[in-house]
Amino acid sequence: MADKQRTQAALDRHPASRPIAAGIALTLGLLVVAGCVGAGSSIAARPTQATPATTSPVASQAGATAGVLVVTAADDGTVLHLAVGQQFLLNLGPAMDWTVTVADQQIVQRVIGVLVIRGAQGIYEARTAGSTSLSAVGSPPCASGMCPLYRLGFRVTITVS
What we know:
By secondary structure, the protein is of the alpha+beta class. The protein folds into two domains: 2-39; 54-160, Immunoglobulin-like, CATH 2.60.40.2020. Helix content is 22%, strand content 31%. The protein has two helices and nine strands, in the order ααβββββββββ. The protein has helices at 2-13, 17-39; strands at residues 54-57, 67-71, 79-82, 87-90, 97-102, 108-110, 122-126, 130-139, 152-160. The strands form two sheets. The protein has a five-stranded mixed beta sheet with strand order 1-2-4-7-6, with no helix packed on it. A four-stranded mixed beta sheet has the order 3-9-8-5, with no helix packed on it. The termini are far apart.
């Protein structure tokens, strides 16, 4: 009780110390939050400068020279209409470790043995007519024991005709 009275007496003598103490607490809180965000590289649910699905040439690193449909995070929740044999590059970016799942791999399947550009998750090909979904879960890279506790989701519906 005596400590509380001494603290109150000190605050009464120095009224400017309350805003300073509040400012210090706020600054420390922001530094902690900034450190947590920086550890995961990105906290945004979706990149702000992603491009929609378009036909564009794949970089020479991808090993393909023909135009390929590029699917990015901006295409989340959309429906892709493909022809049998058509391919697309899934490029969700390098900020997360992505785990990709195709619901029906008889309809759409990843092309094996093809190197893709940094940040891309692979080239996929429409194998047969039908409808399926491609989903991905992104986890922040974690090199230390203090890992961010969030995941990002991505999903597109694919119709092949």
